[in-house]
User: Fold this.
Amino acid sequence: MFSKILIANRGEIAVRIIRACKELGIRTVAVYSEADRSSLHVRLADEAICVGGPRPDQSYLNIPAIISAAEITDVDGIHPGYGFLAENAHFAEICESCNVTFVGPTSKAIGLLGDKLAAKDVMRKAGIPIIPGSLAAVKNKEDALQTARRVGYPVIVKAAAGGGGRGMRICHNDVRLVSALMICQSEAEASFGKGDVFVEKYLQQPRHIEFQILADKHGHTIHLGERDCTIQRRHQKLIEESPSPAVDSKLRRKMGDMAVRAAKAAGYTTVGTVEFLLDRDGNFYFIEMNTRIQVEHPVTETVTGIDLIKEQIRAAAGEPLRLKQEDVTLSGWAIECRINAADPSNGFSPSPGRITMYHEPGGPGIRVDTHIFGGYEVPPYYDSLLAKLIVRGQTRQEAIRVMQRALEEFFIEPLRTTIPLHKQIFSDPAFWRGQFSTDYLDQLLGEREA
Ligand code: ADP
Assistant:
């Protein structure tokens, strides 16, 4: 087991990892930017080192500074959290060469699965259903048009290296496809350093269903059930739940088996997520595999009783899985809301600033994962996630009622947050019925992709 882990991240996930380390008896090192001096993760860790200026490229993405901090503090592991360097194969490789264990998959698996096209190819060969489309990066506009004609419009153009809901464009005809192609290629080059794009069929009104994978370095792989992440704004998740109102035990077994097969095909050795789209006819298709702990992991923890961060650390330390597939049962219903410092009534414009009054909901069935507190100044440089509000009920209806109560109790003054939008969603009959698809929120907000 590790004796000391450096957490190459900030915010709620850094706090979450520190908590898991403390319970495992592992010492912790926080790294922080000049804008995060008084952050909670800095206060809670055993040691803390400033790694640079406020901008992410100066600090949380500054590989030499982070590796130096790891050397100075003599850690034996680095946990990357999510975002920042979590899916950077080069960073994982550097850790491997410095004899510091990267708490995540191998650099090889990150490299392979970080490329959506390469990942689709591996899955296709392993017999996993994929969405029809390009088999290789689009070479030119004729190539793209040919693929679109083969699979039929609408299609979606995606960056092979894309992530976070960025780098995608939906096209309904040849003219749009040709312009989307050029835009996506240059955006992908600028954002991800790689201009490869591909075309695939755009599924109408699907649900986003993902499976949590737990694997070890000894060839064991299991899944911990699904998360339904269909409530999205512009392809970015806002609400997640487990189980899914659209998945029964038969479908869970089928999709779960495919998810395990996908992880095995990629030589996967730790926690990860296999993402599928489920269409209205009950067909499902692999879209990508995420090689990190995800923002929405607490809903799985809530219904399985398994601490995913601890399992991730144990797997990285080389311990064999202590669970078999038949040991995993889902109990009750969990829902998570992402509370962001963003104004839903004004195009989700960022709302950083000082929190003068903070009150967190409490009582049965409530968990809040956050790094904020009264008096905290939310810096403008980072992702706007302030807190994750996770609730549990015996049934979905009960979980929704707990969430409604919790949202009423949550005060983060004077910032504009996504709380009012969540209140609106949780009182919508369509949400109560569990009948929605990925375009639900864009329709509710009257937003359409440009
Ligand atoms: P990212 O890596 O940026 O998160 P994903 O490939 O995981 O991108 O897709 C994010 C979301 O975009 C999905 O949950 C879904 O809502 C939408 N999406 C992606 N591909 C398709 C598709 N082929 N058809 C319909 N929706 C899609």
Remarks:
- The chain has 15 helices and 22 strands.
- Residues 131, 156, 162-166, 200-203, 206, 208, 232, 235, 275, 277, 287-288, 438 surround adenosine-5'-diphosphate (CB under 6 Å).
- The chain has a mean pLDDT of 96.
